[in-house]
Q: What sequence folds into this?
């Protein structure tokens, strides 16, 4: 068990929303928090110094990708992922479970682990709960995630039940093999869209007493009402003194609804992915900057935004950059989109602290 801890500072009188502080080895994280995704040890199209300037408190990197490339020998040489990428604020590492199932060409899934082929070169690998813990302990992230079984969102009840049971078995093995004192370990609740399986998974994972809890297998195509219903079922069953992380969610509307239901942590590739496709996140909705209507537009991306990009560049200029396939277009939109989402969640924190309804 790490000496890090989570403290709830303020709670919303109108919902389960709460403002908290998560004390980690590399810094204190204020929650609710959005974590930009740096899958390969980099948040795409933005360097670490700028990311820090924008107010990112913690980022996510991925076990699967870093294990395959650059490999653990390189990470060991640098003494961990923080030194390797020169980011000395907190880092959470995803266990790699989702990537194994979405990117790796599967050969076999058993109670022992997953045999898969690398999406890079076709080489064979066998990932077990113990191996996932070993990799994350070498990475020395502030928060490690237990290895779970991810399945298709449309899986039937029996398939989902088997995967849920296996996730519990793997979580238990992760807990038993994890021994890095300064690294928190979060368990992951699964169960698909089935309420009874979600309850069973939650009770089982909570019984293993993790440092925090992720809710996985959501925001993968199911209706938003289903997502919210599952959160209404699961969150009250989780310990109130532990951080709760909704994995893979990053749209403003879903963040608000999830915070109201007691979620503390979020991650998503959305702001950087949108930026690469010429989409700006704004207080008035998303803007598609490739559209011809922006050719002469002198306005900033968002008149309510005070980021570097909105202070210095017009919609017309960014439209021009994308029409010319200039990489600066992606860089500027990445800065803006990450700033937008970080500020959006910061404003939620401020409301909770001030006693204003979220």
A:
């Amino acid at each position: 068990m790490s000496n890090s801890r989570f403290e709830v500072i303020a709670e919303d009188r109108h919902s389960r929303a709460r403002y908290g502080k998560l004390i980690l080895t590399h810094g204190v994280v204020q929650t609710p928090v959005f974590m930009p995704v740096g899958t390969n040890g980099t948040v795409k199209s933005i360097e670490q110094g700028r990311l820090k300037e924008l107010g990112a408190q913690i980022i996510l990197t991925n076990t699967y990708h870093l294990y395959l490339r650059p490999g653990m020998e390189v990470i060991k040489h640098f003494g961990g992922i923080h030194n390797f990428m020169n980011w000395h604020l907190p880092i959470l590492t995803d266990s790699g479970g989702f990537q194994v199932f979405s990117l790796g060409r599967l050969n076999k899934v058993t109670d022992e682990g997953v045999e898969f082929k690398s999406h890079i070169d076709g080489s064979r690998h066998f990932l077990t709960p113990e191996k996932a813990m070993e990799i994350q302990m070498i990475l020395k992230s502030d928060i490690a995630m237990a290895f779970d079984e991810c399945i298709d969102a449309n899986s039937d009840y029996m398939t989902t039940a088997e995967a849920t049971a296996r996730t519990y078995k793997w979580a238990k093995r992760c807990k038993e093999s994890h021994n890095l004192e300064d690294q928190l370990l979060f368990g992951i609740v699964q169960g698909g869209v089935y309420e009874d399986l979600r309850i069973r998974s939650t009770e089982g994972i909570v019984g293993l007493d993790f440092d925090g809890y992720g809710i996985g297998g959501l925001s993968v195509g199911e209706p938003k009402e289903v997502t919210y219903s599952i959160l209404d079922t699961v969150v009250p069953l989780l310990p109130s003194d532990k951080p709760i992380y909704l994995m893979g969610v990053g749209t403003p509307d879903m963040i608000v609804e999830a915070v109201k239901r007691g979620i503390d942590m979020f991650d998503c590739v959305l702001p950087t992915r949108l930026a690469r496709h010429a989409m700006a996140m704004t207080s008035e909705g998303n803007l598609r900057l490739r559209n011809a209507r922006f050719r002469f537009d002198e306005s900033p991306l968002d008149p309510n935004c005070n980021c570097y990009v909105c202070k210095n560049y017009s919609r017309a200029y960014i439209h021009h950059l994308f029409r010319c396939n200039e990489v600066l277009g992606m860089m500027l939109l990445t800065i803006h989109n990450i700033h937008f989402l970080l500020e959006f969640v910061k404003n939620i924190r401020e409301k909770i602290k001030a006693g204003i309804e979220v």
Observations:
- The first helix runs from residue 48 to 53.
- The chain has two domains: 5-268, 270-358.
- The first strand starts at residue 5 and ends at 11.
- The chain has a mean pLDDT of 95.
